[in-house]
From TrEMBL:
It comes from Kineococcus halophytocola. Gene3D superfamilies: Dipeptide-binding Protein, Domain 1 (3.90.76.10), Dipeptide-binding Protein, Domain 3 (3.10.105.10), Periplasmic binding protein-like II (3.40.190.10). It comes from the Bacteria. Keywords: Signal, Transport. Residues 1-12 have a biased composition (Low complexity). The lineage of its organism: Bacteria, Bacillati, Actinomycetota, Actinomycetes, Kineosporiales. This is ABC transporter substrate-binding protein.
Amino acid sequence: MSQSQSQSQSQSAVPEQDPSSARPTRRAFTLASVATAGLATLSACAESQRDDGGSGGSGDDGGGRDTFVFGGSADPDSLDPVFASDGETFRVTRQIFEGLVSTEPGTTELAPSLASKWEASDDGLSYTFTLQDGVTFSNGVPFDAAAVVANFERWYDLRGLAQGEDLAYYYRSIFRGFRTNDDPALGESLYAGSTANPDGTVTVNLTRPFAGFLASLTLPAFAMQETGAVEAGGGNGADGSDPRQSAYATSGPVGTGPFTFSAWERGQQVTLKRNDDYWGEKAKVATAVVRVIGDGTARRQALQNGDIDGYDLVAPADVETLESSDFQIQNRPAFNILYLGINQAYAPLGDLKVRQAIAHAIDKEALIGNALPEGTKPATQFMPDNVIGWNEDVTTYEYDVDKAKQLLSEAGQSGIDVPFNYPTGVSRPYMPNPETIYNAINQQLSAAGITTTPVAEQWTPNYLGTVQGTTQHGLHLLGWTGDYNDPDNFIGVFFGAATNEWGFNDPGLFEALADARTVTSESEQESTYQDINEQIMTLLPGIPIASPVPSLAFAPGVEGYTASPVQDEVWNTVSVSDS
Protein backbone atom coordinates (compact mmCIF):
# COMPACT_ATOMS: atom_id res chain seq x y z
CA MET A 1 0.00 0.00 0.00
CA SER A 2 1.42 3.38 -1.00
CA GLN A 3 1.83 5.91 1.77
CA SER A 4 0.80 9.52 1.36
CA GLN A 5 3.71 11.76 0.46
CA SER A 6 2.28 14.38 2.78
CA GLN A 7 2.89 12.16 5.80
CA SER A 8 5.74 13.73 7.72
CA GLN A 9 8.79 12.20 9.28
CA SER A 10 10.52 14.28 11.93
CA GLN A 11 14.19 13.67 12.68
CA SER A 12 16.20 16.06 14.77
CA ALA A 13 19.76 16.82 13.78
CA VAL A 14 22.55 16.08 16.21
CA PRO A 15 25.58 18.28 16.68
CA GLU A 16 28.42 17.59 14.27
CA GLN A 17 31.29 15.71 15.86
CA ASP A 18 34.47 17.46 16.86
CA PRO A 19 37.11 16.40 14.31
CA SER A 20 39.65 16.10 17.10
CA SER A 21 37.58 13.52 18.98
CA ALA A 22 38.77 9.95 18.65
CA ARG A 23 36.38 7.53 16.97
CA PRO A 24 37.37 3.92 16.34
CA THR A 25 36.20 3.80 12.67
CA ARG A 26 38.34 1.34 10.70
CA ARG A 27 41.61 1.59 12.60
CA ALA A 28 43.13 -1.51 14.11
CA PHE A 29 41.58 -3.27 17.08
CA THR A 30 42.96 -6.18 19.04
CA LEU A 31 40.64 -9.17 19.18
CA ALA A 32 40.14 -8.67 22.89
CA SER A 33 38.86 -5.13 22.51
CA VAL A 34 35.75 -5.73 20.42
CA ALA A 35 32.77 -3.58 21.32
CA THR A 36 29.43 -5.21 21.96
CA ALA A 37 26.51 -4.59 19.64
CA GLY A 38 24.65 -1.31 20.09
CA LEU A 39 21.36 0.00 18.80
CA ALA A 40 21.21 1.54 15.36
CA THR A 41 21.52 5.31 15.35
CA LEU A 42 19.12 7.09 13.02
CA SER A 43 20.65 10.52 13.36
CA ALA A 44 19.65 12.94 10.66
CA CYS A 45 23.18 14.32 10.59
CA ALA A 46 26.53 12.65 11.23
CA GLU A 47 30.10 13.42 10.28
CA SER A 48 33.07 11.20 9.47
CA GLN A 49 36.23 11.01 11.52
CA ARG A 50 37.68 8.24 9.38
CA ASP A 51 41.48 8.11 9.18
CA ASP A 52 43.03 9.52 6.05
CA GLY A 53 45.21 6.45 5.56
CA GLY A 54 48.64 7.68 6.55
CA SER A 55 51.46 5.90 4.74
CA GLY A 56 49.47 2.75 4.10
CA GLY A 57 51.68 0.17 5.77
CA SER A 58 53.84 -2.25 3.80
CA GLY A 59 52.64 -5.25 5.77
CA ASP A 60 56.18 -6.43 6.64
CA ASP A 61 57.02 -4.11 9.53
CA GLY A 62 57.70 -5.78 12.85
CA GLY A 63 57.73 -9.32 11.45
CA GLY A 64 54.29 -9.03 9.88
CA ARG A 65 53.22 -11.02 6.85
CA ASP A 66 51.83 -9.51 3.68
CA THR A 67 48.96 -11.95 3.11
CA PHE A 68 45.82 -12.63 5.16
CA VAL A 69 44.07 -15.89 4.25
CA PHE A 70 40.51 -16.42 5.44
CA GLY A 71 38.59 -19.69 5.15
CA GLY A 72 35.14 -19.14 3.65
CA SER A 73 32.44 -21.79 3.69
CA ALA A 74 31.33 -21.39 0.07
CA ASP A 75 32.08 -19.65 -3.19
CA PRO A 76 30.62 -16.17 -3.68
CA ASP A 77 27.42 -16.21 -5.69
CA SER A 78 28.59 -13.19 -7.68
CA LEU A 79 31.05 -10.33 -7.27
CA ASP A 80 28.28 -7.80 -7.90
CA PRO A 81 26.55 -7.33 -4.53
CA VAL A 82 23.37 -5.96 -6.14
CA PHE A 83 22.55 -9.52 -7.18
CA ALA A 84 23.50 -11.27 -3.94
CA SER A 85 21.91 -12.00 -0.60
CA ASP A 86 24.43 -14.34 1.02
CA GLY A 87 27.19 -13.69 3.51
CA GLU A 88 29.96 -15.42 1.58
CA THR A 89 29.46 -13.06 -1.36
CA PHE A 90 29.31 -10.06 0.93
CA ARG A 91 32.43 -11.16 2.81
CA VAL A 92 34.34 -10.55 -0.43
CA THR A 93 32.46 -7.53 -1.77
CA ARG A 94 32.76 -5.58 1.50
CA GLN A 95 36.50 -5.41 0.81
CA ILE A 96 36.01 -4.02 -2.71
CA PHE A 97 32.98 -1.76 -2.36
CA GLU A 98 31.67 0.81 0.13
CA GLY A 99 28.30 2.40 0.70
CA LEU A 100 27.28 5.91 1.63
CA VAL A 101 26.69 4.76 5.21
CA SER A 102 28.46 2.12 7.29
CA THR A 103 28.44 0.86 10.89
CA GLU A 104 30.72 1.48 13.84
CA PRO A 105 33.07 -1.51 14.08
CA GLY A 106 31.64 -4.22 16.33
CA THR A 107 28.20 -2.62 16.61
CA THR A 108 25.03 -1.90 14.64
CA GLU A 109 25.35 1.88 15.12
CA LEU A 110 25.39 3.93 11.95
CA ALA A 111 28.65 5.56 10.88
CA PRO A 112 29.73 7.69 7.90
CA SER A 113 31.43 6.04 4.96
CA LEU A 114 31.46 7.53 1.44
CA ALA A 115 29.06 10.13 2.81
CA SER A 116 30.73 12.25 5.49
CA LYS A 117 27.36 13.47 6.77
CA TRP A 118 23.69 13.52 5.86
CA GLU A 119 20.50 15.36 6.64
CA ALA A 120 16.87 14.32 6.31
CA SER A 121 14.02 16.64 5.35
CA ASP A 122 11.32 17.25 7.94
CA ASP A 123 8.79 15.21 5.95
CA GLY A 124 11.15 12.26 5.60
CA LEU A 125 10.92 12.32 1.80
CA SER A 126 14.46 13.40 0.97
CA TYR A 127 17.98 12.82 2.25
CA THR A 128 20.94 15.00 1.32
CA PHE A 129 24.42 13.47 1.57
CA THR A 130 27.72 15.33 1.77
CA LEU A 131 30.37 13.17 0.14
CA GLN A 132 33.99 12.53 1.10
CA ASP A 133 36.50 14.60 -0.87
CA GLY A 134 39.05 13.12 -3.22
CA VAL A 135 37.63 9.61 -3.49
CA THR A 136 38.15 7.67 -6.70
CA PHE A 137 37.09 4.26 -7.88
CA SER A 138 39.91 1.76 -8.27
CA ASN A 139 39.94 2.36 -12.06
CA GLY A 140 40.63 6.06 -11.49
CA VAL A 141 37.12 7.36 -12.18
CA PRO A 142 36.12 10.02 -9.61
CA PHE A 143 33.49 9.16 -7.02
CA ASP A 144 31.10 12.10 -6.87
CA ALA A 145 27.43 13.04 -6.68
CA ALA A 146 26.88 11.97 -10.29
CA ALA A 147 28.22 8.51 -9.42
CA VAL A 148 25.74 8.21 -6.57
CA VAL A 149 22.87 9.16 -8.85
CA ALA A 150 24.09 6.66 -11.44
CA ASN A 151 24.02 3.85 -8.87
CA PHE A 152 20.51 4.61 -7.67
CA GLU A 153 19.30 4.90 -11.26
CA ARG A 154 20.98 1.62 -12.19
CA TRP A 155 19.06 -0.25 -9.49
CA TYR A 156 15.81 1.51 -10.41
CA ASP A 157 16.20 0.64 -14.10
CA LEU A 158 16.88 -3.11 -13.76
CA ARG A 159 14.64 -5.17 -16.04
CA GLY A 160 13.61 -8.74 -16.70
CA LEU A 161 15.68 -11.46 -15.06
CA ALA A 162 17.63 -8.85 -13.09
CA GLN A 163 14.42 -7.92 -11.21
CA GLY A 164 13.97 -11.51 -10.03
CA GLU A 165 13.32 -12.30 -6.40
CA ASP A 166 16.47 -14.43 -6.21
CA LEU A 167 18.65 -11.73 -7.85
CA ALA A 168 17.52 -8.27 -6.76
CA TYR A 169 16.51 -9.60 -3.37
CA TYR A 170 17.51 -6.60 -1.29
CA TYR A 171 16.37 -3.97 -3.74
CA ARG A 172 12.94 -5.58 -3.90
CA SER A 173 12.80 -5.88 -0.11
CA ILE A 174 13.69 -2.25 0.54
CA PHE A 175 12.48 -0.30 -2.50
CA ARG A 176 9.54 -2.58 -3.43
CA GLY A 177 9.48 -1.67 -7.13
CA PHE A 178 11.37 -0.51 -10.23
CA ARG A 179 10.83 2.17 -12.83
CA THR A 180 9.10 -0.48 -14.94
CA ASN A 181 7.92 -3.53 -13.04
CA ASP A 182 8.11 -6.81 -14.94
CA ASP A 183 6.64 -8.70 -11.98
CA PRO A 184 2.98 -7.88 -11.19
CA ALA A 185 3.69 -8.57 -7.50
CA LEU A 186 5.82 -5.40 -7.37
CA GLY A 187 4.36 -1.99 -6.61
CA GLU A 188 5.37 1.64 -6.56
CA SER A 189 9.06 2.09 -5.83
CA LEU A 190 10.20 3.81 -2.66
CA TYR A 191 12.78 5.59 -4.82
CA ALA A 192 11.56 8.84 -6.39
CA GLY A 193 14.76 10.05 -8.06
CA SER A 194 18.01 11.68 -7.03
CA THR A 195 19.87 14.88 -7.86
CA ALA A 196 23.54 15.80 -8.05
CA ASN A 197 23.52 19.28 -6.53
CA PRO A 198 25.79 22.17 -7.63
CA ASP A 199 27.58 22.18 -4.25
CA GLY A 200 28.69 18.55 -4.71
CA THR A 201 26.09 17.04 -2.40
CA VAL A 202 23.51 14.53 -3.61
CA THR A 203 19.83 14.37 -2.69
CA VAL A 204 17.86 11.12 -2.76
CA ASN A 205 14.08 11.44 -2.84
CA LEU A 206 11.51 8.92 -1.63
CA THR A 207 7.87 8.43 -2.58
CA ARG A 208 6.95 7.86 1.07
CA PRO A 209 8.76 8.00 4.42
CA PHE A 210 10.77 4.95 5.44
CA ALA A 211 12.18 4.99 8.96
CA GLY A 212 14.87 2.44 8.11
CA PHE A 213 16.18 4.15 4.97
CA LEU A 214 19.53 5.30 6.35
CA ALA A 215 20.18 1.99 8.07
CA SER A 216 19.27 0.09 4.90
CA LEU A 217 22.02 1.92 3.03
CA THR A 218 24.57 -0.03 5.09
CA LEU A 219 23.55 -3.12 3.10
CA PRO A 220 26.35 -4.37 0.82
CA ALA A 221 23.81 -4.59 -2.01
CA PHE A 222 23.67 -0.78 -2.03
CA ALA A 223 27.42 -0.19 -2.20
CA MET A 224 28.65 2.28 -4.79
CA GLN A 225 29.99 0.78 -8.02
CA GLU A 226 31.61 2.37 -11.04
CA THR A 227 28.64 2.11 -13.38
CA GLY A 228 30.71 2.66 -16.49
CA ALA A 229 32.60 -0.55 -15.72
CA VAL A 230 29.31 -2.30 -14.92
CA GLU A 231 27.89 -1.36 -18.32
CA ALA A 232 31.09 -2.25 -20.20
CA GLY A 233 31.12 -5.68 -18.56
CA GLY A 234 27.47 -6.47 -19.26
CA GLY A 235 26.64 -6.24 -15.59
CA ASN A 236 23.01 -5.14 -15.95
CA GLY A 237 21.80 -8.16 -17.90
CA ALA A 238 20.38 -5.89 -20.59
CA ASP A 239 20.64 -8.70 -23.16
CA GLY A 240 18.49 -11.01 -21.03
CA SER A 241 21.44 -13.00 -19.68
CA ASP A 242 22.06 -13.68 -16.00
CA PRO A 243 23.96 -10.59 -14.73
CA ARG A 244 25.59 -12.71 -12.01
CA GLN A 245 27.56 -14.45 -14.76
CA SER A 246 28.58 -11.30 -16.61
CA ALA A 247 32.21 -10.40 -17.22
CA TYR A 248 31.81 -7.58 -14.71
CA ALA A 249 30.36 -9.77 -11.94
CA THR A 250 32.90 -12.55 -12.39
CA SER A 251 36.13 -10.78 -13.24
CA GLY A 252 35.84 -7.00 -13.23
CA PRO A 253 34.21 -5.44 -10.13
CA VAL A 254 35.23 -1.82 -9.52
CA GLY A 255 34.66 -0.06 -6.19
CA THR A 256 36.23 2.43 -3.81
CA GLY A 257 37.23 0.00 -1.05
CA PRO A 258 40.59 -0.85 0.55
CA PHE A 259 41.11 -3.87 -1.73
CA THR A 260 40.77 -4.44 -5.46
CA PHE A 261 39.81 -7.61 -7.28
CA SER A 262 42.69 -9.76 -8.55
CA ALA A 263 41.41 -13.26 -9.38
CA TRP A 264 38.55 -15.68 -8.78
CA GLU A 265 39.35 -19.37 -9.08
CA ARG A 266 35.87 -20.87 -8.93
CA GLY A 267 35.46 -23.32 -6.09
CA GLN A 268 38.97 -22.51 -4.83
CA GLN A 269 39.58 -18.92 -3.78
CA VAL A 270 39.18 -15.22 -4.42
CA THR A 271 42.33 -13.09 -4.33
CA LEU A 272 42.28 -9.38 -3.52
CA LYS A 273 45.08 -6.82 -3.66
CA ARG A 274 45.60 -3.73 -1.53
CA ASN A 275 44.23 -0.56 -3.09
CA ASP A 276 47.23 1.74 -2.70
CA ASP A 277 45.10 4.73 -3.76
CA TYR A 278 42.46 4.06 -1.14
CA TRP A 279 41.05 7.24 0.41
CA GLY A 280 40.85 5.83 3.97
CA GLU A 281 43.14 3.78 6.16
CA LYS A 282 45.14 1.64 3.75
CA ALA A 283 45.32 -2.10 4.26
CA LYS A 284 48.12 -3.46 6.40
CA VAL A 285 48.45 -6.56 4.22
CA ALA A 286 49.18 -6.45 0.50
CA THR A 287 46.98 -9.44 -0.33
CA ALA A 288 43.80 -10.89 1.11
CA VAL A 289 42.60 -14.33 0.07
CA VAL A 290 39.24 -15.97 0.74
CA ARG A 291 39.80 -19.70 0.37
CA VAL A 292 36.72 -21.86 -0.14
CA ILE A 293 36.57 -24.73 2.37
CA GLY A 294 33.03 -26.05 2.57
CA ASP A 295 33.54 -28.57 5.36
CA GLY A 296 33.79 -27.20 8.90
CA THR A 297 36.26 -29.84 10.04
CA ALA A 298 38.47 -29.10 7.05
CA ARG A 299 38.42 -25.38 7.94
CA ARG A 300 39.55 -26.18 11.48
CA GLN A 301 42.33 -28.40 10.21
CA ALA A 302 43.43 -25.74 7.72
CA LEU A 303 43.78 -23.27 10.59
CA GLN A 304 45.65 -25.75 12.74
CA ASN A 305 47.98 -26.56 9.84
CA GLY A 306 48.71 -22.90 9.15
CA ASP A 307 47.05 -22.97 5.71
CA ILE A 308 44.63 -20.19 6.68
CA ASP A 309 44.77 -17.41 9.28
CA GLY A 310 41.14 -17.45 10.35
CA TYR A 311 37.65 -18.69 9.59
CA ASP A 312 34.03 -18.10 10.45
CA LEU A 313 31.31 -20.48 11.64
CA VAL A 314 33.40 -22.52 14.04
CA ALA A 315 31.63 -25.74 14.97
CA PRO A 316 30.54 -25.65 18.63
CA ALA A 317 32.50 -28.81 19.37
CA ASP A 318 35.72 -27.25 18.02
CA VAL A 319 35.81 -24.16 20.23
CA GLU A 320 37.42 -25.77 23.27
CA THR A 321 39.92 -27.69 21.11
CA LEU A 322 41.12 -24.53 19.40
CA GLU A 323 41.28 -22.43 22.57
CA SER A 324 43.36 -25.08 24.30
CA SER A 325 45.90 -24.80 21.46
CA ASP A 326 46.19 -20.99 21.81
CA PHE A 327 44.04 -20.12 18.84
CA GLN A 328 41.86 -17.04 19.30
CA ILE A 329 38.07 -17.45 19.48
CA GLN A 330 35.87 -14.44 18.94
CA ASN A 331 32.10 -14.72 19.38
CA ARG A 332 30.04 -12.61 17.03
CA PRO A 333 27.08 -11.06 18.86
CA ALA A 334 24.00 -13.09 17.89
CA PHE A 335 21.89 -11.07 15.49
CA ASN A 336 20.18 -13.74 13.45
CA ILE A 337 17.28 -16.14 13.17
CA LEU A 338 17.25 -19.80 12.12
CA TYR A 339 13.82 -20.86 10.94
CA LEU A 340 11.90 -23.75 9.42
CA GLY A 341 10.20 -22.28 6.37
CA ILE A 342 6.78 -23.55 5.29
CA ASN A 343 5.55 -23.09 1.72
CA GLN A 344 1.78 -22.73 2.02
CA ALA A 345 1.38 -23.22 -1.72
CA TYR A 346 2.35 -26.88 -1.20
CA ALA A 347 -0.63 -28.89 0.04
CA PRO A 348 -1.42 -29.58 2.83
CA LEU A 349 0.86 -26.90 4.33
CA GLY A 350 -1.69 -24.20 3.57
CA ASP A 351 -3.82 -25.59 6.43
CA LEU A 352 -3.16 -23.65 9.64
CA LYS A 353 -3.78 -26.73 11.79
CA VAL A 354 -1.04 -28.58 9.91
CA ARG A 355 1.39 -25.72 10.49
CA GLN A 356 0.44 -25.61 14.16
CA ALA A 357 1.05 -29.36 14.37
CA ILE A 358 4.53 -28.90 12.92
CA ALA A 359 5.23 -26.17 15.48
CA HIS A 360 4.13 -28.35 18.41
CA ALA A 361 6.21 -31.27 17.11
CA ILE A 362 9.52 -29.40 17.38
CA ASP A 363 11.51 -29.54 20.61
CA LYS A 364 13.67 -26.44 20.25
CA GLU A 365 15.61 -27.01 23.46
CA ALA A 366 16.64 -30.51 22.37
CA LEU A 367 17.52 -29.25 18.90
CA ILE A 368 19.73 -26.50 20.34
CA GLY A 369 21.45 -28.95 22.68
CA ASN A 370 22.23 -31.33 19.82
CA ALA A 371 23.05 -29.03 16.92
CA LEU A 372 23.69 -25.40 17.88
CA PRO A 373 26.41 -23.48 19.78
CA GLU A 374 26.46 -23.12 23.55
CA GLY A 375 24.58 -20.04 24.68
CA THR A 376 21.98 -20.26 21.92
CA LYS A 377 18.41 -19.60 23.08
CA PRO A 378 15.11 -20.68 21.49
CA ALA A 379 13.34 -18.11 19.32
CA THR A 380 9.69 -17.25 19.76
CA GLN A 381 9.40 -14.92 16.76
CA PHE A 382 11.20 -13.96 13.56
CA MET A 383 13.60 -11.42 15.08
CA PRO A 384 16.20 -11.40 17.88
CA ASP A 385 15.14 -10.07 21.26
CA ASN A 386 17.32 -6.93 20.95
CA VAL A 387 15.37 -5.55 17.99
CA ILE A 388 12.64 -3.01 18.66
CA GLY A 389 9.17 -4.56 18.50
CA TRP A 390 10.14 -7.94 19.94
CA ASN A 391 7.06 -9.18 21.81
CA GLU A 392 7.54 -11.09 25.05
CA ASP A 393 3.85 -12.03 25.06
CA VAL A 394 3.68 -13.39 21.52
CA THR A 395 1.71 -16.60 20.89
CA THR A 396 4.00 -19.61 21.29
CA TYR A 397 3.69 -23.30 20.47
CA GLU A 398 5.08 -25.49 23.23
CA TYR A 399 6.61 -28.86 22.43
CA ASP A 400 3.71 -31.31 22.63
CA VAL A 401 3.71 -34.39 20.39
CA ASP A 402 0.19 -35.41 21.40
CA LYS A 403 -1.11 -31.94 20.55
CA ALA A 404 0.61 -32.17 17.17
CA LYS A 405 -1.05 -35.52 16.44
CA GLN A 406 -4.44 -34.16 17.52
CA LEU A 407 -4.15 -31.14 15.21
CA LEU A 408 -3.20 -33.35 12.26
CA SER A 409 -6.22 -35.55 12.97
CA GLU A 410 -8.51 -32.51 13.13
CA ALA A 411 -7.11 -31.40 9.78
CA GLY A 412 -7.72 -34.85 8.30
CA GLN A 413 -4.00 -35.08 7.56
CA SER A 414 -2.69 -37.91 9.70
CA GLY A 415 0.40 -39.47 8.16
CA ILE A 416 1.32 -36.62 5.79
CA ASP A 417 4.48 -36.76 3.68
CA VAL A 418 6.16 -33.50 2.54
CA PRO A 419 9.50 -32.63 0.95
CA PHE A 420 12.07 -31.09 3.28
CA ASN A 421 14.79 -29.01 1.58
CA TYR A 422 18.10 -28.35 3.27
CA PRO A 423 21.45 -27.08 1.93
CA THR A 424 24.74 -28.91 1.65
CA GLY A 425 28.27 -27.65 1.18
CA VAL A 426 27.80 -24.63 3.43
CA SER A 427 27.78 -23.38 7.00
CA ARG A 428 25.83 -20.27 7.89
CA PRO A 429 25.94 -18.18 11.11
CA TYR A 430 22.40 -19.28 11.92
CA MET A 431 22.95 -22.83 10.62
CA PRO A 432 26.46 -24.19 11.35
CA ASN A 433 25.63 -27.74 10.21
CA PRO A 434 22.45 -27.94 8.09
CA GLU A 435 22.39 -31.73 7.84
CA THR A 436 22.60 -32.15 11.62
CA ILE A 437 19.76 -29.66 12.09
CA TYR A 438 17.70 -31.37 9.39
CA ASN A 439 18.17 -34.79 10.99
CA ALA A 440 17.13 -33.50 14.42
CA ILE A 441 13.97 -31.81 13.13
CA ASN A 442 13.12 -34.74 10.88
CA GLN A 443 13.21 -37.15 13.81
CA GLN A 444 10.95 -34.87 15.85
CA LEU A 445 8.44 -34.50 13.02
CA SER A 446 8.46 -38.25 12.46
CA ALA A 447 7.51 -38.84 16.10
CA ALA A 448 4.39 -36.76 15.49
CA GLY A 449 3.42 -38.68 12.36
CA ILE A 450 4.87 -36.25 9.82
CA THR A 451 7.03 -37.96 7.22
CA THR A 452 9.47 -35.88 5.21
CA THR A 453 11.32 -36.62 2.00
CA PRO A 454 14.81 -35.12 2.22
CA VAL A 455 15.84 -32.81 -0.63
CA ALA A 456 19.52 -32.02 -0.17
CA GLU A 457 20.87 -29.39 -2.54
CA GLN A 458 24.18 -27.57 -2.86
CA TRP A 459 24.01 -24.05 -1.42
CA THR A 460 25.90 -22.73 -4.43
CA PRO A 461 24.49 -22.42 -7.02
CA ASN A 462 21.09 -24.03 -6.44
CA TYR A 463 19.63 -23.87 -2.95
CA LEU A 464 18.44 -20.26 -2.66
CA GLY A 465 17.18 -20.40 -6.24
CA THR A 466 14.99 -23.34 -5.30
CA VAL A 467 13.48 -22.11 -2.03
CA GLN A 468 13.21 -18.42 -2.97
CA GLY A 469 12.94 -18.52 -6.76
CA THR A 470 10.49 -21.40 -7.28
CA THR A 471 7.40 -22.95 -5.71
CA GLN A 472 8.92 -26.45 -5.79
CA HIS A 473 9.51 -26.96 -2.08
CA GLY A 474 7.54 -27.80 1.06
CA LEU A 475 9.51 -27.40 4.29
CA HIS A 476 12.96 -25.84 4.18
CA LEU A 477 15.77 -24.71 6.45
CA LEU A 478 16.91 -21.13 6.13
CA GLY A 479 17.71 -18.17 8.29
CA TRP A 480 18.79 -14.59 8.32
CA THR A 481 21.61 -12.57 9.78
CA GLY A 482 20.38 -9.04 10.34
CA ASP A 483 21.92 -6.41 8.11
CA TYR A 484 20.96 -3.45 10.28
CA ASN A 485 19.05 -2.95 13.49
CA ASP A 486 15.51 -2.32 12.35
CA PRO A 487 12.50 -4.67 12.57
CA ASP A 488 11.77 -4.16 8.89
CA ASN A 489 15.11 -5.85 8.11
CA PHE A 490 13.73 -9.03 9.65
CA ILE A 491 9.96 -9.38 9.37
CA GLY A 492 9.65 -6.78 6.61
CA VAL A 493 12.12 -8.73 4.48
CA PHE A 494 10.41 -12.04 5.22
CA PHE A 495 6.75 -11.11 5.05
CA GLY A 496 6.40 -7.71 3.41
CA ALA A 497 4.98 -9.12 0.16
CA ALA A 498 3.88 -12.36 -1.45
CA THR A 499 6.93 -14.52 -2.25
CA ASN A 500 7.73 -17.97 -3.58
CA GLU A 501 9.43 -18.86 -0.33
CA TRP A 502 6.32 -18.66 1.86
CA GLY A 503 3.58 -19.17 -0.71
CA PHE A 504 0.81 -17.10 0.90
CA ASN A 505 -0.97 -13.85 0.17
CA ASP A 506 -2.13 -11.83 3.16
CA PRO A 507 -2.87 -8.22 2.14
CA GLY A 508 -3.60 -7.29 5.76
CA LEU A 509 -0.15 -8.32 6.92
CA PHE A 510 1.55 -6.75 3.92
CA GLU A 511 -0.28 -3.47 4.53
CA ALA A 512 0.57 -3.50 8.25
CA LEU A 513 4.26 -3.96 7.46
CA ALA A 514 4.17 -1.26 4.79
CA ASP A 515 2.56 1.17 7.25
CA ALA A 516 5.07 0.26 9.97
CA ARG A 517 7.99 1.26 7.72
CA THR A 518 6.83 4.88 7.90
CA VAL A 519 6.60 5.06 11.71
CA THR A 520 9.36 7.21 13.23
CA SER A 521 8.39 7.44 16.90
CA GLU A 522 10.26 4.76 18.86
CA SER A 523 7.35 4.13 21.22
CA GLU A 524 4.95 3.80 18.29
CA GLN A 525 7.40 1.50 16.50
CA GLU A 526 7.56 -0.68 19.59
CA SER A 527 3.81 -1.22 19.86
CA THR A 528 3.27 -1.43 16.10
CA TYR A 529 5.85 -4.16 15.56
CA GLN A 530 4.77 -6.04 18.69
CA ASP A 531 1.29 -6.26 17.20
CA ILE A 532 2.70 -7.41 13.87
CA ASN A 533 4.84 -10.09 15.53
CA GLU A 534 1.69 -11.43 17.17
CA GLN A 535 -0.10 -11.36 13.82
CA ILE A 536 2.75 -13.31 12.22
CA MET A 537 2.91 -15.96 14.91
CA THR A 538 -0.86 -16.43 14.70
CA LEU A 539 -0.61 -16.85 10.92
CA LEU A 540 2.43 -19.12 11.51
CA PRO A 541 4.10 -18.97 8.08
CA GLY A 542 7.09 -20.86 9.52
CA ILE A 543 8.73 -21.86 12.77
CA PRO A 544 11.41 -19.56 14.27
CA ILE A 545 13.94 -21.91 15.87
CA ALA A 546 16.80 -19.99 17.49
CA SER A 547 19.35 -17.17 17.35
CA PRO A 548 22.67 -19.07 17.37
CA VAL A 549 25.91 -17.50 18.61
CA PRO A 550 28.47 -17.71 15.77
CA SER A 551 32.18 -18.03 16.54
CA LEU A 552 35.28 -17.10 14.54
CA ALA A 553 38.73 -18.56 15.05
CA PHE A 554 42.10 -16.96 14.32
CA ALA A 555 45.76 -17.86 14.46
CA PRO A 556 47.65 -16.34 17.43
CA GLY A 557 49.37 -13.74 15.21
CA VAL A 558 46.20 -12.16 13.79
CA GLU A 559 45.30 -8.70 15.08
CA GLY A 560 42.82 -6.06 14.05
CA TYR A 561 39.81 -8.22 13.13
CA THR A 562 36.64 -6.77 14.65
CA ALA A 563 33.65 -9.11 14.57
CA SER A 564 30.41 -7.37 13.67
CA PRO A 565 26.89 -8.51 14.55
CA VAL A 566 25.91 -7.57 10.97
CA GLN A 567 29.13 -9.00 9.47
CA ASP A 568 30.35 -5.53 8.43
CA GLU A 569 33.97 -6.68 8.65
CA VAL A 570 36.48 -4.79 6.52
CA TRP A 571 40.01 -6.11 6.54
CA ASN A 572 42.16 -3.01 6.06
CA THR A 573 42.91 -3.09 9.81
CA VAL A 574 44.00 -6.73 9.88
CA SER A 575 47.65 -7.66 10.37
CA VAL A 576 49.27 -11.08 10.54
CA SER A 577 52.49 -12.09 12.27
CA ASP A 578 54.22 -15.42 12.74
CA SER A 579 53.99 -15.26 16.53
